[in-house]
Amino acid sequence: MLKIANVLLAVGVMFSSLLWADDDIARDTVVSVVDSFRTRIVADKAVLAKDPALLISRVDKILTPVVDFDSFAKKVMGKYYRRASPEQRIRFATVTKDTLINTYGSSLLQLDPDKIKVLPLGPQGRGKEVKVDVNFQMDSGSPLDISFYMEDYGNNSWKLSNVVISNINFGLTFRKQFAVMMQQNKNDIGLAIDAWRESLAKKS
Questions:
Q1: Whole-number Cα distances in Å, 54 to 32, 51, 98, 126
Q2: By residue range, what is the domain housing residue 6?
Q3: Looking at the keywords, is Signal present (predicted)?
Q4: Using CA atoms, how far apart are residues 88 and 73, in angstroms rounded to an integer?
Q5: Structural domain count of the chain
Q6: Can you give the pLDDT at residue 19?
Q7: Over the stretch 89-119, which tens digit does the pLDDT of each residue have?
């Protein structure tokens, strides 16, 4: 009986170690993204501030490999996703992607390159996402805390599934905003996407 208990304990330790190793890969992915922000965006912000097209291009190259924009758009559309046509889904995902990239780009130019820190992994929830916290500081001295929620896509490939900035859940906020757009446009998905694009363009 004691031998069985020891074997089960050993298997449990091994399994938990493997899970922790996977979590570390999620954090390493965020570290790589943050380092790219620091070296390719923030450190070159004097040039990029005068060249919006170059800024968008660089942010796109950093984020696209680690963000499943189609999946993110599906979560934002919520219950309306099934009703949308394939063309509407693609258009919505494109609008969402363009807005996120533009928003990220303009925000990154305000960061202090010497005050960016990826924190050690803390306790994780029971879901499939791994939360990686990063502390940023603006040029003005104001702190900016961002939690990157990473999801395992298999083969050690982790992608960003949601972002919480200063306690504002972007995925949830976008979902609520799009639901309002649907109500305001009599549940016409096409019109709601147009309104969504116009609304986000004003904020980006």
A1: 20, 5, 14, 40
A2: 2-203
A3: yes
A4: 11
A5: 1
A6: 40
A7: 999 999 888 888 887 788 888 888 888 999 9
Contact, 168 vs 152, CB < 8 A? no
136 alpha-carbon distance from chain centroid: 15
pTM metric for this prediction: 0.79
Condensed to tens digits (0 to 9), the pLDDT of residues 28-40 reads: 999 999 999 999 9
Tokens of 167: 């306690």
Residue 76: which CATH number? 3.10.450.710
- Binned average pLDDT, 10 residues per bin, the chain of 204 residues: 40 35 83 92 92 93 90 89 93 87 84 89 79 91 91 86 87 89 93 85 64
Question: In this structure, what token pair is assigned to residue 122?
Answer: 């803390």
